[in-house]
């Protein structure tokens, strides 16, 4: 449950995010430009509140942030329920903006929980496991809704609110910080010393002993490679997030209005995509942070964007392509985040989220305009151009082992 609970919390917020966007398009009748403005409002609120969450996260505070996330998500769900019943246009803005508050505290709370409760050598594997579990829970939720039909789900929305309460209460019980919050301090010391002599792991042991044929042999661990420039990581993140918004912001509108899928089909496409991504992520989990995989994920992402937006293929092909796109995005996002964590010693994870969402502002604001005025080919071309910085990061990435 230590890693399942964080994944369930994030999955709930992912589902609520999609629900709000679909309600905005289908029930409220928002245009693609209005949908972009709605997502822009979400980003503005997130950028503001993630600063607060970041300060709490750097102090190692996890449980309080989960409680604040619970308050926010309940407010968002209750507002959305009123929107569905009364078709209140402006109330959907309130629902989505409160969702942004819930997401900021929950996400940074989960990060703080991991960074304070696990050794720095485990951070990579823990974050990958949480990402994989999140994909699975996303798939289960989305396909379940497509089977019971979205209309019945919204009619019994109070039941979903009850599930939210249960999972968040579980999060409050499970996601607690240690008494002595020292792991990130030790990691920063290790990172600084490694540039001079050798790396320090866990508890400041400069040497280790290995049992070899019954005798103990001292050895020094290999020096860690120097961290990649934060500036280069930020540039890569900027291109990645803008490109993502060019696709994911108009995607519900594209499915519902352009391809004319019904709501159950939309949820099924998203759900199958998550299952495909989960299977692929499980198969490639051990290699996700490898240089060659990072590099290969970039053209894979471009190919899947083409299939989803431009190719005109059927629902099944789009769903499978969406799964490959989720995998490519997870690989890129994981590598960017881990490069950032390595460069900062685990501090300022909220700053990463802040930079991530701030860079999304450009994509959110312009995606609807580009989609409606210049068309899908222009979107694909821009996504390709914005991938260039990630290629540089992938080429500069070093695969190394600790001995």
From TrEMBL:
The chain crosses the membrane at residues 7-29, 35-54, 66-84, 90-114, 159-175, 228-247, 267-284, 305-328, 369-388. InterPro entries: MFS_trans_sf (IPR036259). The keyword Transmembrane helix applies. The keyword Coiled coil does not apply. It comes from the Archaea. This is MFS transporter. Keywords: Membrane, Transmembrane, Transmembrane helix.
């Amino acid at each position: 449950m230590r890693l399942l609970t964080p994944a369930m919390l994030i999955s709930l917020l992912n589902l609520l995010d999609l629900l709000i966007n679909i309600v905005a398009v289908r029930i409220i009748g928002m245009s693609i430009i209005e949908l972009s403005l709605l997502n822009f409002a979400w980003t503005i609120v997130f950028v503001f509140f993630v600063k607060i969450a970041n300060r709490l996260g750097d102090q190692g505070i996890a449980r309080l942030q989960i409680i604040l996330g619970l308050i926010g998500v309940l407010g968002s769900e209750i507002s959305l329920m009123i929107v569905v019943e009364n078709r209140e246009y402006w109330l959907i803005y309130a629902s989505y903006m409160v969702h942004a508050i819930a997401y900021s505290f929950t996400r940074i709370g989960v990060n703080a929980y991991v960074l304070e409760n696990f050794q720095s050598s485990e951070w990579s594997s823990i974050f990958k496991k949480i990402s994989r579990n999140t994909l699975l829970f996303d798939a289960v939720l989305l396909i379940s809704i497509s089977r019971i039909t979205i209309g019945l789900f919204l009619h019994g929305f109070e039941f979903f609110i009850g599930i939210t309460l249960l999972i968040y209460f579980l999060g409050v019980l499970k996601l607690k910080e240690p008494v002595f919050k020292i792991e990130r301090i030790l990691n920063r010391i290790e990172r600084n010393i490694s540039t001079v002599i050798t790396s320090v792991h866990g508890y400041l042991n400069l040497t280790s002993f290995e049992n070899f044929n019954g005798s103990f042999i001292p050895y020094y661990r290999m020096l860690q490679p120097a961290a990649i420039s934060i500036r280069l990581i930020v540039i890569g993140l900027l291109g990645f997030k803008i490109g993502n918004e060019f696709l994911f912001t108009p995607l519900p509108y594209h499915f519902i209005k352009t391809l004319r899928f019904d709501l159950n089909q939309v949820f099924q496409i998203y759900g199958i995509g998550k299952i495909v991504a989960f299977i692929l992520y499980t198969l490639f989990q051990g290699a996700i942070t490898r240089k060659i995989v990072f590099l290969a994920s970039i053209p894979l992402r471009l190919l899947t964007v083409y299939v989803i937006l431009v190719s005109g293929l059927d629902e099944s092909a789009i769903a499978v392509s969406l799964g490959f796109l989720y995998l490519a995005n997870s690989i890129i996002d994981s590598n960017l985040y881990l490069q950032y964590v390595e460069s900062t010693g685990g501090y300022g994870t909220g700053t990463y989220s802040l930079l991530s969402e701030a860079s999304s502002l450009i994509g959110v604001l312009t995606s609807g305009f580009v989609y409606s005025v210049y068309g899908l080919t222009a979107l694909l071309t821009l996504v390709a151009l914005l991938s260039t910085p990630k290629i540089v990061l992938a080429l500069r990435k070093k695969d190394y082992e600790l001995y």
